[in-house]
Amino acid sequence: MNAPATAPAVTPAADEAPAGPRPYSQYVYAYPHKTAYRRLDPRPALRDLWAGEPKDALSLYLHIPFCEVRCGFCNLFTRIGAPEGLTGAYLDALDRQATAVREALGDEPVRFATAAFGGGTPTFLTAAELERLCDIAERRTGADLRAVPLSVEASPATATADRLAVLAERGATRLSLGVQSFVDSEARAAVRPQRRADVEAALGRIREARIPVLNIDLIYGIDGQTERTWRESLDAALAWHPEEIYLYPLYVRPLTGLGRLGADADAAWDRQRLALYRLGRDHLRERGYEQRSMRMFRRADAPATGDEDYACQTDGMIGLGCGARSYTRALHYSFDYAVDMREIRAIVDDWTTRPAEDFGYAEYGRAIDADEARRRHLLQSMLQADGMDRADYRARFGAGPEEHFPGELARFAARGWLDASAPAAGLLRLSEEGLAHSDALGPELFSPAVRAAMAAYDLK
Ligand code: SF4
Hints:
Elements: E1 38-39, H1 46-50, E2 58-64, E3 66-67, E4 79-80, H2 86-104, E5 112-119, H3 127-141, E6 150-154, H4 161-169, E7 174-180, H5 184-189, H6 196-209, E8 213-220, H7 227-238, E9 244-249, H8 257-260, H9 267-286, E10 289-291, E11 296-299, E12 317-320, E13 326-327, E14 331-334, H10 341-352, E15 364-367, H11 370-382, E16 388-389, H12 390-397, H13 401-404, H14 406-414, E17 427-428, H15 432-436, H16 438-444, H17 448-456
Parallel strand pairs: 2-5, 2-12, 3-4, 5-6, 6-7, 7-8, 8-9
Antiparallel strand pairs: 1-15, 9-11, 10-11, 13-14, 14-15, 16-17
Bound molecules: iron/sulfur cluster.
Iron/sulfur cluster binds at residues 1-2, 67, 70-71, 74, 76, 78, 119-121, 155, 178.
């Protein structure tokens, strides 16, 4: 996957901490985090978990846990390279799993509203293997990939013409390229060695493939990065007129390459990241991009993607592959999780040799009760620039957000993180500063139980 993932960032020594909450605590891209999942004993059968669940607007996610290199900032569930035969065996297992999961969904009609291939790097697979991946999605789960938004992540080296042709022909509507920096020395500093010339060539191939939405991921806060070099990367990305640009703050996380190098987070680094965030935000806005969240910017004149009606707060997700999560209303589940390369290899190997009957059960997960559902809804809505519709929240949970989260919302208001004009429009919305502090605000909405489970998780 291009997107840097999440785990608690390194905590600075107390005397280095800036006044107020640190702006970079954790990227909340899914709640609860996988480190709050636990082995489920006994394993619930998927048939029981999905009985009675709405199945008319599911999202489908296929996870490919292979990359050519391990980027220094990455703690995603992915391994470097694959020995001969492993990707084929992985697709065999994915086929078995997809068949078992579709059976577990029962006889009623199932409709997928969105689809995504993530990782890892899905384009680590060859063109022929990508054809097979699409066949598995369509024939086993019944998803109509050409009729729904289909997002695929790629790296510059693997965004080859033959792979892109397959993806375009099979219905990919969005190609997300993990560039991180157009400055070669910064790419090296983030332990992602690549040459700008190769990145530019990959972008040319992607545009030639005519996939409607191009997303470029960039990172700020890299060692040696300055306002000048950051602007250079932003302008290099803008030259391709991408429909979307994601700006990610760099994190240093336990067990990742940068973590092992002993890099540390400190107040000066927080200041650097905040300054680069503001520069990047303003730079893109001045050039016709709308800010959709702290990280996401969309070209104002870009065509609609087709997934505007999909409600990530309420709709279920079918995740296939050994690092994918699945969501029902009552349970989020996945398989075992690790960050360390040896552990990941062992989990992938184990998953790949599983018999079909093993795929009919959920093995690791976390129950979602009413309180967790409210927190998740709040997190997924409030961290968007458009904010949360108060009437929707009340209709779903029977009361307003202030009644459920009086302490948190009063604290956010006192820090100037809430847009005081939003309630008149029926919204709960972050201010500019609130959006800039999304990675501090989000973790404050975690439940005590999830916080405790994450703290107790033995990272491996
Ligand atoms: S390319 Fe692979 S290692 Fe690099 S950030 Fe994406 S998932 Fe992580």
